[in-house]
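This part of the workshop introduces the protein records we will be handling. To make this concrete, we reproduce a full record directly below:
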Amino acid sequence: MQATAATNPLDAQLLGELQKLLGAGNILHKPEDLLLYEYDGSVEVARPDCVVFPRDAEQVAALVALANRFQTPLVGRGAGTGLSGGALARTGGILTVFSRMNRILSVDELNQIAVVQPGVVNADLSAAVAHLGLHFAPDPSSQKACTIGGNVSENSGGPHTLAYGVTTNHVLAMQLVLPTGELVRIGSASPDAPGYDLAGLFVGSEGTLALVTEVTVKLTRLPEETKTLLAIYDRVEDATETVAEITARGITPAACEMLDGWSLRAIEAYIHAGYPTDSAAVLLIDIDGLREAAAAQSEQVAEVCRAHNAREVRVARDARERDLLWKGRKNAFAAVGRLSPCYYVQDGVIPRSKLPDTLRRIDEIGKKYGFEIGNIFHAGDGNLHPIIPFDGRDADQFRRAVAASDEIIEYCVAAGGAITGEHGVGMEKDRLMPLMFTEAELELMKRLRNAFNPAGLLNPEKIFPAAKGCGEIRSRPRPVAASEVPVV
């Protein structure tokens, strides 16, 4: 299983044009420099011919013009925390990194709107407006590193999007560079603007339709009160049944996360968050809103947890305790990285009612392929993240990890779910798209992509099954240190 990587040296004339446009200090092209950019947070590998760092929209438009002139692939990249290979240069070419376009351009407190460049880090935006009692609601667990532009490209989710929605629910307008090099604006800061929902089209398009150079986002008022509950179970089934019952009662927590026993023991050994290491599973639940409503709903949720055999329901006593519990969840995948040189984290979706059956099936698949699979996931919306630890130095282990992962996703689709909830399709799951879509449906999507990206130079061979064996080319992963492990 070979890594996909560029094999041709960078065209000397193109390099000269890039240096003239951006300056030599904003371009990387030596092999030793490119090594760092052939990975993201997935197990995929693909090396670009060069890496560039634009500083404004005009430079991005000029880059697109150069890519067209030299017929060179062009791929956008934020922080590289993606988990589907979406920001990798699968066919080589120019990797455009937006880390130097990282300014918050304006904040409108009265209308609760911010205008940001794509390289602004998710958590930095919330920190910048916290004194106004506001925040940016989408909260991927990688929010301390991931960027708004990446969130837009992948339509990122996170624990608290159960109540607040995913990225598309918080994007009002964008400035884009189309594959033609044209600089355009879509959407409106005004709510319910007439016309086609073009912002909805581009959010989640995984960088195949345009490069994002500016985003106008909604800001959300911080809740008056937040109650954080930790429900502890001796049986996984009891935890999953609790989730279904909470929903049936018409309660929508701000977040509802589940961690199984294997996962929480790994986390506790690393973070010391206060998770009980002798339990089979825990639910980490946030209830927020007005003080009285949050208190009443947290009591109702605790009652449901106890009715489904929670042996204990803890309520965080203060902000410090709450932050520690969430630190455990947000650093869960880094904790797993301490136990295994590599792991494959998946991203399937199922109806909440199918949680017990699906977790049993994941366990069966793990035994079939010889892995102990951990489960850390967004239980409230049925977005699963099975974790398959393996040794990437063993080619057979990697093949088995991929086979187990594919079987899990096939089961999710058969149960009425989807192949991805928030990580995207990228180059990881392009070959699995036919599980969900007919040939006619895929063809319609391709026609839409081709309307914007007719030459196919912008993020090629992503989302749709690749011509070369429907995405059968897989990566060769490297062992990963705990400090490098991305979070989901």
